[in-house]
Amino acid sequence: MFSNFFNWRSALALIAIAIVTGTIFYSNYLAKKIAADERKKVSVWAESLKTRASTLDESALSLTTKIANENKDIPIIETDEKDNPSGATLNLDTNRIKKESNYIQIKLAEFKKENPAIEVEISKDPLFVNKYYYGDSDLLKEVRYYPIIQLIIVALFVIIALVTVSVRNKSTQNQVWAGMAKETAHQLGTPISSLQGWVEMLKDNPVNEKIGVEIEKDVDRLKLVSDRFGKIGSIPQLEEKNIVQQVESMVDYIKRRSTDKVSFSINSQNDYDISAMINAPLFDWVIENLLKNALDAMDGKGSIVVDIKNEITQTVIEVTDSGKGILKSNINKVFKPGFTTKKRGWGLGLSLSKRIIEHYHKGELFVKNSEVGKGTTFRIILKK
Questions:
Q1: Average pLDDT over residues 195-201
Q2: CA atoms of 193 and 221, how far apart (whole Å)
């Protein structure tokens, strides 16, 4: 159980979470450290301005000038104690200052949100205080945004890995499906050929002629099944066919094999010339599966209605039964291979039908609606 839970996907997710979490914590640590260093730099810079304005000592002037000139990356705005800009700025876009009258005010508002001001007392009598508002340097911004960038990169990596593995698994499943279908068609070929020979011998004998005719029908049916499996194992050719006629033939086939307590009806809105690009044997198989599924859901009595709609961009076929319906919890499971609520069956009919419509016909097959105790509607969409 633990091994099933802790699969490669879980391991990949845990590694990604660990990388991102570690990066975020370390980046926050670095950001706080850089922010503290920058505040010290701005404080020393502001004090150097005060010293330079109040001393005549050449060595002190030289030192303070050097300190003042060392700040190349932290933007600063000087204001009075009432937050009115004095006009003195550092590391701001001088061109925008000249062209945009409110540029300094906009940057001042930004700096107030980023960092508290550093206050420097210029004189005590009268009391005169300057405030220095400063923004984050480019380095600090990069450190703060780095975890987000890394998170995006890791997320992309995980998504690409999952998609790649999913595509590879799907390709493997397709190969298994195709291989099984080809092998089934091959295995059916020999006994069908043998049965055809026996049928011809029976038909030559007048006593057994009727038996031979009936057996021939079943042999033809086996040939059709073999042909269908053969087409699944290869790329089927699509041809323009009359959908109404195709559906009618399958409804007639199923109707002859059901009880009189089940009614069948086809509604094409009086349009009998609805066509679509299909592979007839495979499309017939889908309709047969849906009709059989509807019969099984009704326990021998009820109604099956097939609606065929000719829309501008697509052809829609809906198969509705008055059966027992599907539980909401099972609607997303009905197309999964192996899922069945029947006592007998492999649970492959709907899965195979969905594959035929979506993989070979590039259409859609899904449960349009279902209500327990009232019935289910399956919808097929074929693009034009």
A1: 67
A2: 13
